[in-house]
Design a protein that fits this description.
Blueprint lengths: L5 H10 L22 E5 L2 E4 L4 E4 L14 H13 L8 H13 L5 E5 L2 H16 L3 E5 L44 E4 L4 H8 L4 E6 L15 H12 L2 E5 L11 H6 L5 E4 L10 E5 L1 H4 L1 H4 L12 H13 L2 H24 L4 E5 L3 E6 L8 H5 L3 H13 L2 E2 L5 E3 L6 H18 L1
Parallel strand pairs: 3-13, 5-6, 5-7, 7-8, 8-9
Antiparallel strand pairs: 1-2, 2-3, 4-10, 9-10, 11-12, 12-14
Helix pairs in contact: 2-10, 3-10, 5-6, 11-14, 13-14
Bound molecules: pyridoxal-5'-phosphate.
């Protein structure tokens, strides 16, 4: 099978006179085969303008944990639309959504909702700085916390610009970023407790932000003791620990990576799978910190925060995310993950398949599983792009950065069809 994507290409070209580059996020440009145009989604499938049916492992960049057409979410949204779209006031559905998160997420004593992960990261930085009276936000190389000027640094830096591994320098992610923002930020390598300790000891860090498992790049588990050590070091040095669970939340388990690894941060961010594709994000955490929005003059705003239609989607999504669903989806995810590893090995391709049941990473050219960004950056990205393109031509859509997101709608037949495509694609590039 070799699918063609000509109609998508023509639509992108034609509409580039209205939409810059034909896409509305830079992360959608530059795929091998070109950006695609989709007409509809159903379960594990996306249907494109050329009439192709693609098995989708983008899953909305991780958001579509229930697949593309979960009936419970759709009908909850339809019911809410009939009752009103935006009240600029409170609604019972947002309180129900908040209660569910508080009951489910270990760190969630209080909540504020937003519309995107990038946005609630900003709210977390503001709280950390207000609470500590310090300026520096400490981040880790290769971790991504949104596209805003003050944090889009060293997310995927070129190694020739990033400095030595034990003393990385901040590398901007975009032209046009204000260099003054680097003054409020510092970066170190992840999964290295000694370096974190040493940096915190300077006493100027307001907040430490990390993905508790590094998933925007790779799918790397924290080293044993790293999260616990980070929590203890932050406590000792008076810094606020922030977990960015935008990807890990509701994928590494229904109570987030924090429950899975047993470490409760001061603040956490959730988005993506929280509402299966509807624009909901949440900043959750310690009551005394979140209550600074109320009593200590820290501002948090947003016209669309807790928009009732998205809240209805969130409640329906959370209600669908039962332990049974995780068990069944995880089983299929592991079968897929391990099946891919076996096929690549048989094909003689050097690869590391790492990560979790419902989100994992395939990295080519790696001798051993990566421990952090530097380990990952040693891989053969160009070869993986060829693999992703070979899969696309066979009807399987995967991210070119190596991430695979599995939804509850990816049934055993879909996993079998995917493994068949992986076999063909591996043979093509080997
Ligand atoms: C770990 C992580 N944090 C934050 C964000 C930003 O979220 P959003 O794209 O909703 O602004 C992303 C997005 O990919 C992410 O992967």
């Amino acid at each position: 099978m070799s699918l063609s994507f000509e109609k998508s290409a023509a639509l992108i070209a034609e509409n580039s006179r209205y939409v810059a580059g034909g896409v509305n996020s830079n992360f959608r440009i530059g795929m091998a085969g070109g950006p695609l145009v989709f007409t509809h989604g159903e379960g594990p499938y996306l249907f494109d303008a050329d009439g192709n049916r693609l098995i989708d492992y983008y899953c909305g960049m991780g958001a579509m944990v229930l697949g593309h057409s979960p009936h419970g979410v759709i009908s909850a949204v339809q019911d809410q639309v009939a009752k009103g779209i935006l009240y600029a006031g409170q609604s019972p559905i947002e309180f129900e959504a908040a209660r569910i998160l508080c009951e489910r997420i270990p760190s969630a004593q209080r909540i504020r909702f937003g519309s995107s992960g990038s946005e609630v990261a900003q709210a977390a930085f503001r709280l950390a700085r207000a609470a500590t009276g310090r300026r520096i936000i400490l981040k880790f190389e290769g971790h991504y916390h949104g596209w805003f000027d003050n944090i889009l640094w060293s997310t995927a830096p070129a190694l020739n610009a990033a400095g030595p591994e034990d003393a990385p320098v901040l590398v901007p992610g975009s032209l046009g970023q204000d260099p003054i923002d680097a003054a409020g930020l510092d970066v170190i390598g992840w999964n290295d407790l000694a370096r974190l300790e040493a940096r915190l000891a300077k006493g100027d860090v307001a907040g430490v932000i990390m993905e508790p498992a590094m998933c925007n790049q790779g799918a790397i588990a924290p080293a044993p003791g790293f999260l616990e050590g980070a929590k203890e070091a932050c406590r000792r040095h008076g810094a606020i620990l922030i977990f960015d669970e935008v990807i890990t939340g509701f994928r590494l388990g229904r109570s987030g990576a924090q429950a899975r690894f047993g470490v409760t941060p001061d603040l956490s961010l959730f988005a993506k799978a929280i509402a299966n594709g509807f624009p909901v994000s949440a900043l959750v955490g310690r009551a005394d910190l979140l209550d600074m929005f109320v009593s200590k003059g820290v501002l948090h705003g947003g016209t669309f925060n807790a928009q009732p239609v998205t809240m209805a989607a969130m409640v329906a999504t959370q209600n669908a995310l039962t332990p049974e669903l995780y068990e069944a989806t995880s089983k299929r995810g592991v079968r897929l993950r391990d099946g891919i590893a076996a096929i690549l090995k048989d094909a003689g391709l050097k690869a590391q398949v790492t990560g979790f049941e419902m989100m994992f990473h395939v990295g080519f050219g790696l001798e051993k599983p990566a421990r952090n960004y530097r380990g990952l950056a040693a891989g053969d990205k160009a070869l993986y792009v060829r693999f992703a393109h070979a899969l696309l031509k066979r009807g399987v859509r995967v991210l070119e950065r190596g991430a695979w997101f599995v939804s509850s709608a990816h049934g055993d037949d879909v996993i079998d069809a995917t493994l068949e495509a992986v076999r063909g694609a591996a043979g093509e590039i080997a």
